[in-house]
Amino acid sequence: MPDAGGQNHKTDVIIIGAGPVGLFAVFELGLLGLSAHVVDILDRPGGQCAELYPEKAILDIPSRKSITGQELTHDLMAQIEPFKPTFHFQQMAEKLEKVENGHWRMVTDQGTVLEAPVICIAGGGGSFMPKKPKLDRLEEFEGKSLFYAVRKMDQFRGKNVLIAGGGDSALDWVVNLQANNIVSGMSLVHRRNEFRGAQATVDQMYALVNSGKVNLAIGDILKLNGDGGQLKSVTLKSAEKGEFDVPCDAMLAFYGLTMKLGPIAEWGLNMDSNRVAVSTESFETSTPGIFCIGDMCTYPGKLKLILSGFHESALMAHGSFHYARPNQKLRFEHTTSSSAIQAKVGVS
Questions:
Q1: For helices 306-324 and 20-31, what crossing angle results, to 10°?
Q2: Which of these, 82, 169, 296, 313, could form a disulfide with 25 (CB 3.0-4.6 Å)?
Q3: Are the beta carbons of 185 and 160 closer than 8 angstroms?
Q4: What is the pTM of this model?
Q5: What is the maximal distance between C-alpha atoms in the chain?
């Protein structure tokens, strides 16, 4: 279940990162009866798998001869569905503090407030941050009429939107904003007439261009035009047309993503080479109640593999139980023989 931001929530464990390891952590926690909320800066689950190699084969997932990043994400989402996690997409974990009852209170950059006795960092290599175009006056327009993600579609209602980029995100939003009758006008700008997105989405985009609903402009962006943070047009240059302007009053720039550690670096955790040091007994950090799993954690012999992260998720869940249920004894059960676990996941 997604959350749009700006609400207050209480749960057992706050998971930072909706990649494969974070998703499997939801499952392991669910087996122990623990609830989870998941925060991720992307607009969908899957992390690096979904964003960087959705259609590339992964060959080292147990029992699967080959599986794509998107298939793995889909299967993990199906596996955790019985536990009903809440997702907070397009939000960054920004502030963290301890409250009087011993729990952690986390605030995202969208104003969502989460409280839990346990924090689990599963952020992969860090937060995905947008790559920004090298253009003059960029900061003048950022957050006012130039954006790097769609937080709420209504923000673009009735606007003449220019989308820059040639990958899945750019193409998806061309199609989605048109399909929902949000925009008054739409232009897609890319440096060449070749696109990296899924072929089905590329075909949908060309259909919109052919029907006159989308203006496709090929060229390099030279400058942004407007005043007081409000865009009026973007100047392009191409070999065929030279310099020309494309009118717009809002721009979405999708030039890819880069990885940064983000606010987690300021939380006072023991770090080692820009990674979070953990104990391999439960993958708890130097701060009690905060755990770290996946590529972001480090320990002797660490291998950055998804299957290693799955193992780390199981031990993290058991370590978390004592914080979330301090007055209960943890009863270890195998999924093959526990009728209670089988009932939780809907398997008889």
A1: 40
A2: 313
A3: yes
A4: 0.68
A5: 73
Q: How many CA atoms does the CB half-sphere of 111 hold within 13 Å?
A: 5
Any idea where the domains of the chain sit in the sequence? 8-129+258-345, 132-255
pLDDT digits (tens, 9 = 90+) for 291-311: 999 999 999 999 999 999 999
Could you tell me the two tokens for 229?
């943070």
Which parts of 198-330 are beta strand (E)?
215-218, 220-227, 230-238, 242-247, 250-253, 257-260, 271-272, 275-277, 290-292, 297-298
**Residue 270 CB neighbours (<10 A):** 11
Structure tokens given for 114 = 């989460």
User: Confidence class of residue 265 from pLDDT cuts 50, 70 and 90?
Assistant: confident
Q: Give me the CATH code for the 132-255 domain, please.
A: 3.50.50.60
Instruction: Please give the Cα distance from 213 to 204 (Å, whole number).
Output: 11
Give the integer Cα–Cα distance in Å for 89 and 97: 21
How does DSSP classify residue 6? S
Task: Judge if 8-129+258-345 and 132-255 fold alike in CATH terms.
Answer: yes
Helices (H), ranges, 145-251: 168-179, 199-210
Distance CA 177, CA 270 (A): 44
